[in-house]
């Protein structure tokens, strides 16, 4: 706690000092400093009922804090910056996949960069965030909700010739949680705009290609003593090709990527090549739009490091990747619709095939802004691929046929009735194979859920509004039925208060403990407030949080349950 307060104090002092100084610097040809501070802290409280039901609860944790201070300087074509990440210690759920299982340790990480951009070319030294195409062979990015940052410490250069030819090259060492890995990653990307070359400006046609190499830091890691898998080389080569087309509301984007030699990809260290094909189709006309994405991928998870004798790269976690294979199902924002999210099945089965379709239509009178209908429908489905589960310790291999892993069919309608009243209703049907959440299995175990949501916002006057949200999940499987409700009162533009509860209201074998001979029909309650002013935002809440998966931007992490007080704030100058 003392170190957290010290970190916060230093950050605040630096913020105010620089802000005061920057007020004296002229905007325009002179330099400009920008500062952003973000902090998320939780005081964990004992909750005997929740701990009895779920030993995964953060019962041994007292305090956690994830903090980020970012300072950038810009002067014409030159820019530079630093970012200090402090885990004092890391919040529960963020420390499960750290490099050395640092549950209670205080850690920090400093990143920095300098950059020069001059018209059609630019050079950057330091920490690099970038991606090639859809990120299927290379993507470095930061997602603080997931505790994920795999920035590349090295160099990047790019050149653009009249928007016809774009060339990019880079190389460096990726970040792995709170250390810099010794694995070397390098690559290049080339984009040719055929439409610009031909002088055709009514649409867009381009072809693109990328190459990425990865060299492991220790050749001894390439042989697994139990399963005997051996790579061809300590260097992995990957390549991708892409085509893009847009015309008169139509769009087509396709990408094929492949690992050109064997790589470890699964819990069994079974070396194999990999491939992925991703196709995006879309059409929009006035207030109507439809889009569809199809993908087949096999063995394409690409780790930064591979540990000898460390099944599933355990304690390296989901952040141990240099590419990005996003989940293509809808990321629900309502609690019960996102209660059991799809997290992909390729880590255990090697691959998957499927996609999603998204349809949107708006019905409105352009002369009447306060009355409209928005209709939205989404459908996603994913299946596993036929594969072989290698036998262990002399056991024979098991051939497993591909099967359905996930289905989600959902509809929502938003209605703005007048200046004061807006409603949203949603229905979602979800079906998933629970057996694939715990490992590979030849025997499916399907669960079904029907989720209903009603969301009503009433604007009392220009500054006061009230929002009420009611949800119901009906299921004969898993944890049975759930109900949830939220009441939120807003005092625009500064204050907001809310109270919510989510209750597992039906007893099943999954919320029953044989050790205590009781059903744990838990209430997950929350009360909180948000204060916003100028460049400041402060959020304070108290409540019980269910264990489960948190998803953001197409990725997920496991969050142990906890009861506690949560303080989060952001500041920017």
Overview of the structural elements:
- The protein has 573 residues and is mainly beta.
- The chain has four helices and 35 strands.
- It has helices spanning 2-22, 48-53, 194-198, 346-349; strands spanning 32-45, 63-75, 78-87, 107-118, 121-128, 130-131, 139-140, 142-143, 148-149, 152-161, 165-176, 179-180, 184-193, 203-215, 235-247, 250-263, 272-285, 288-298, 351-365, 368-384, 387-389, 398-400, 404-416, 421-433, 446-459, 464-474, 482-491, 495-504, 512-513, 518-519, 523-533, 536-545, 548-552, 555-559, 562-572.
- The chain has a 24-stranded antiparallel β-barrel. The chain has a two-stranded antiparallel sheet with strand order 6-7.
- A hairpin with a 4-residue loop joins strand 23 (404-416) and strand 24 (421-433).
- The longest helix is centred in the N-terminal third of the chain and has 21 residues, at 2-22.
- It is globular.
- Residues 3-8, 10-27 and 310-315 have low confidence and may be disordered.
Question: Any descriptors?
Answer:
573 residues, mainly beta, 24-stranded antiparallel β-barrel, two-stranded antiparallel ribbon, globular
Would you summarize the structure shown here?
Helix content is 6%, strand content 56%. The protein contains four helices and 35 strands. The strands form six sheets. The chain has a 24-stranded antiparallel β-barrel.
Strands, helices and their partners?
Blueprint: H1 2-22, E1 32-45, H2 48-53, E2 63-75, E3 78-87, E4 107-118, E5 121-128, E6 130-131, E7 139-140, E8 142-143, E9 148-149, E10 152-161, E11 165-176, E12 179-180, E13 184-193, H3 194-198, E14 203-215, E15 235-247, E16 250-263, E17 272-285, E18 288-298, H4 346-349, E19 351-365, E20 368-384, E21 387-389, E22 398-400, E23 404-416, E24 421-433, E25 446-459, E26 464-474, E27 482-491, E28 495-504, E29 512-513, E30 518-519, E31 523-533, E32 536-545, E33 548-552, E34 555-559, E35 562-572
Antiparallel strand pairs: 1-2, 1-35, 2-3, 3-4, 4-5, 5-10, 6-7, 8-9, 10-11, 11-12, 11-13, 13-14, 14-15, 15-16, 16-17, 17-18, 18-19, 19-20, 20-23, 21-22, 23-24, 24-25, 25-26, 26-27, 27-28, 28-31, 29-30, 31-32, 32-35, 33-34
